[in-house]
DNA sequence: AGCGCAGTCAACACGGCTGTTGATTAACTG
DNA sequence: CAGTTAATCAACAGCCGTGTTGACTGCGCT
């Protein structure tokens, strides 16, 4: 269906056999062309992330993205399959990273206290580093994506679940070892901690005076030691 | 424009002069009719709230609402001006209540500690009581409604701001009196506390085993005394 | 000069959603 | 029965957003 548009794949197929000067120059030309291609593609993706974050995925139109990227709307369909594809690409990579991060922390040999602190810091720093890509994902409700039975949606839901499990695990360990004390169960506490971090999508700006790491430390202090310590 | 549809207003105009038996009967008939009208209207509104919460305001269609309410789509336009009107009605009243609540707490003579706890409990209980009406509001980002310059939007943004101010005030009082201790400033802490509560729109269900009040108490304990107390 | 190809852009088809209207039904009233 | 009125419903108009197509441009290569 989109075979005529897969320039990227075509370009990536390097021919190792040809080593003459001419073909080297060709290869170089193709490589720089490919780099340009990727640059423009990334620019469009960045524009899309901004627009999606500001307007919300369903409200934003492909034309909004085009205007932001200063490109013709139809050209976007040259770089991406469509609106959904835009969302998937911006969200996919970074999310998987975050899940790995959470699981690594959970299975590390730190104390529960330090695990939870590190989780919060790393999470917010990740939101900052990938701004605004990851916030688009945070903003869009997973339970809504569940309607869509596509493999991508399933994968995203699975990743989401693994993340939650890792957080709950950290809390549970803390409760069991009496490092943490609470009237609620681990899931509830996890919901509170994660919610505190995720709600930052409504107010955090990377250009603001506070770095994500500072914010996360303040939150961690609050959760771990309490305001009335 | 909609004059031919304002049955409700027409009905509400009671004629105190007529007191004969016949007119009394008429009045009674109209009253029960009006009650029925309000009931059906409320049913539609409830359906709309459910659909908006599940699908998101912009994704949901008026037809989705109609199907949920088991009514013809066009009939919805008999009861409401349109999709926006649906949103406004479900969100308007309860929000104002919440702001009053927050301001009352802030200006009461409790300790900062008890103010913050009560705020969290009352907020979550309100979300539970008005479920799912208020979560629709929490879900929809205010900064997006800002685009729309309607008086309603302005009022909502103003209410939102008053709420935030009240919360910050409580925290500030706590910090000043040394009842609270934190590395961050009042706004940041407020963002954390409010975020923790608001994120509940993603997972809280009134039919679940935990009441909102319990949840809020757990959260308050965590924030005030810390997990490592 | 002539070929090929990445990339752009105007124009179109299509579908879905909103809001309206006018006819129609059902229930009540005298 | 005839008149009135709330409420429903089928059908329609218009708009907006998506995705596609085919022609066009500009550039590098031979």
How would you portray this structure in words?
Two copies of one chain form a homodimer. The first copy, chain A, is mainly alpha-helical and 229 residues long. Chain A folds into two domains: 3-79, Orthogonal Bundle (Arc Repressor Mutant, subunit A), CATH 1.10.10.60; 89-225, Tetracycline Repressor, domain 2 (Orthogonal Bundle), CATH 1.10.357. In chain A, 71% of the residues lie in helices and 0% in strands. Chain A contains eleven helices and no strands. The longest helix of chain A is centred in the N-terminal third of the chain and has 35 residues, at 21-55. Chain A is elongated and about 60 Å long. The N and C termini of chain A lie far apart (63 Å). Residues 1-19 of chain A have low confidence and may be disordered. The structure holds a DNA duplex (30 and 30 nucleotides).
